């Protein structure tokens, strides 16, 4: 949902703001006698493939709170070999309780400001991982630290219980 809102905001920027961004403010302000023709040539098309985005544009460089597991190798690399504790949310698209727990869990993880990661595993896409970790019902959340399972729960929990679960995993 947040991604859709972000995309809508980007698309609603006026064409003038997007197509004619200054290359740098130093170039424009360096010559006090520049004419409107000269300042127009110091602008660059946003869509020009040879240019990168100007530094003045905001971009999402922050690390995401959660990530979707792509395959078994990705799971091994980003979850098992992770230096951070990782919460693994085994869910399914058709699962109503999963749709409720997911955002709550992401919120609890976001409160920890990078001290814990969250992996999302769709059991329909990654049945092998679900079987390997004994997932028999969804939603199931498994906490791992150093490649070892340290705790888990099945079903929905309220926000306070999720906060205490996450805090317990990171050792607070």
Summarize the topology.
Blueprint: H1 2-11, H2 15-19, E1 21-22, H3 25-30, H4 36-41, E2 43-44, E3 66-68, H5 72-80, E4 86-91, H6 96-110, E5 117-122, H7 127-132, E6 140-145, E7 148-154, H8 159-170
Parallel strand pairs: 3-5, 4-5
Antiparallel strand pairs: 1-2, 4-6, 6-7
Helix pairs in contact: 6-8
Write up this protein.
- The chain is α/β, with parallel strands linked by helices and 172 residues long.
- 40% of the residues lie in helices and 19% in strands.
- A hairpin with a 2-residue loop joins strand 6 and strand 7 (148-154).
- Helix 6 (96-110) crosses helix 8 (159-170).
List keywords for this structure.
single chain, 172 residues, alpha/beta, five-stranded mixed sheet, two-stranded antiparallel sheet, 8 helices, 7 strands, 19% strand, globular
Brief digest:
With 172 residues, the chain is an alpha/beta fold.
SS summary, helix count: 8
Low-confidence parts: 14-46, 56-62
Largest sheet: 5 strands, mixed
- The spatial strand order of the largest sheet comes to 3-5-4-6-7
Arithmetic mean of pLDDT? 77
Q: Which geometry do the CA atoms define?
A: globular
Distance between the termini: 31 Å
How many strands in all? 7
Rg, Å, rounded: 23 Å
């Amino acid at each position: 949902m947040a991604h859709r809102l972000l995309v809508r905001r980007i698309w609603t920027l006026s064409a003038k703001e997007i197509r004619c961004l200054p290359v740098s403010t130093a170039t424009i302000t360096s010559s006090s006698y520049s004419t409107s023709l000269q300042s127009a040539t110091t602008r660059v098309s946003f869509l020009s493939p040879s240019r990168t985005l100007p530094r003045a544009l905001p971009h999402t460089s922050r690390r995401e709170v959660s990530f979707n597991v792509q395959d078994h190798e990705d799971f091994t690399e980003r979850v098992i070999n992770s230096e951070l504790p990782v919460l693994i949310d085994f869910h399914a698209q058709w699962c109503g309780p999963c749709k409720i727990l997911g955002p709550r869990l992401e919120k609890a993880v976001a409160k920890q400001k990078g001290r814990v990661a969250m992996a999302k595993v769709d059991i329909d896409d990654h049945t092998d991982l679900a079987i390997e970790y004994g997932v028999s019902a969804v939603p199931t959340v498994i906490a791992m630290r150093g490649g070892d399972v340290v705790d888990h729960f099945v079903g929905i929990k309220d926000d306070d219980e999720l906060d205490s679960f996450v805090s317990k995993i990171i050792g607070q």
